Amino acid sequence: MALKDIGIGKKKFNMAEKPWKTPWYLTCLEAIILSYYMVIAKLKIKKDPSIKDIKGPFLMLQNHGSFIDFGLAVKAFKLRPMTWVSSIEEFNHREWLLRSLGCFGKRKFTADLNVVKNIMHALKKQKLPVVIYPEARFAFAGITEEIDAKSYARLIKMAGVPVVVGIAKGNFIRSPQWRKHPYQNIPAEMTLTQIITKEETATLSAEEITKRIEKAFDYDDYKYWQESGRRIKSKKRAENLHKVLYQCPHCKKEFEMTSYGTTLECKACGKKWTLTEYGKLVSDGEVYFEHIPDWYRWIRQNVETEVYEGRYSFKDTARIEKLISSSKGFVPIGTVELTHGEDGWTAKGKLDNGEDFYLNRPVDSMYSCHIEYDYKKRGDALELATTEDTYFVYPLNNENILTKFHFATEALYHKITGDHIKKS
């Protein structure tokens, strides 16, 4: 029996559909939404003077701290029509709206020629700028995540258009992925820099373009918070921070961290830290890490060591949901055995309709992975996608494991391919 026989939607997302141009009335809607953002987030834009000389289409590469990034890009170019590369799950229940705003879909960490074709169509046929978030997921600790800059360099050489980088600051601190609400009171701003001119796309090598991209994507939102002197009084500013800082630097145990209010605590050894109103960690006795990104990097290095020494493996039972269509959204289809190691990600089992299910993403096919903390209140989810389908997988027995998935996927890719993608 095929999946189509279990009574779910028939119309799948058309990944080859060309980008739409935004109608005038939705441009007015964008203006209204932007006005709201300007009030609540005090949006500010700083532009390289050369930006004003860009008249035709261009590529804009932007970091990704929160949903407000969209508003920053719209404000930066004064409601100029644009095209956006968007994750396909964002089309869930709102495909018409997103396509009307100029978005077209991509499945996370898959190689799909439709994406390249749609980018080139927008640039060459529609003469529109294209906005891409090359980290391909939200930041988790307010610093740069891994970017496949080599692939973007090849795209830039092919496109032959100017390249602008937008680095937003304060947007992550306002609404970190591990606790999106309530919003924290810090202004959001973005610096726009032209890193490659149209002429340079022909003269620069792919290696030189790669270096420029990597250099441009260097940011630290916690440092921005600290240097701004902005006081965040929120009584929940550390709540859920243990989702990211899941390993205790005092006793070294994993998955024993918890957080509440402004406090992080290790349940195993009792060590506590407080996140101050100015973005630093303090503690009685040794602090270990005053700066949250330093703690995050320490855990990442520990996972890399575990992977390279051959000690890493994961296995759990997991609930699996499939993204069917915009109207159907994600539909639960069964329970699978989820494993991760040097064979990559594997999900296998018998679905609710009795059909056998098997999905494997080899290590060298995913340089990173997409995770969602408590996705739409349904639990912590890992996304596994092919060029045809998108699945969200929810481990049932391992708590607070997602960030380790993120680190381990990257470390395994480095180990197997020898390709060390630059990260913060």
How many strands in all? 18
Q: What gyration radius follows from the Cα positions, in whole Å?
A: 22 Å
Distance between the first and last residues' Cα: 47 Å
Oligomer: single chain
The CATH homologous superfamily name of the largest domain equals Glycerol-3-phosphate (1)-acyltransferase
Q: Give the low-confidence spans.
A: 1-10
CATH structural architecture of the largest domain: 3-Layer(aba) Sandwich
Topology:
Elements: H1 24-41, E1 44-47, E2 59-62, H2 69-76, E3 83-87, H3 95-100, E4 103-106, H4 113-125, E5 130-132, H5 149-159, E6 163-169, H6 171-174, E7 189-196, H7 200-203, H8 206-216, H9 221-228, E8 257-260, E9 263-266, E10 272-275, E11 281-282, H10 292-308, E12 314-323, E13 330-341, E14 344-350, E15 356-361, E16 370-372, E17 381-385, E18 390-395, H11 402-417
Parallel strand pairs: 1-7, 2-5, 2-6, 3-4, 3-5
Antiparallel strand pairs: 6-7, 8-9, 9-10, 10-11, 12-13, 12-18, 13-14, 14-15, 16-17, 17-18
Helix pairs in contact: 1-2, 5-8, 10-11
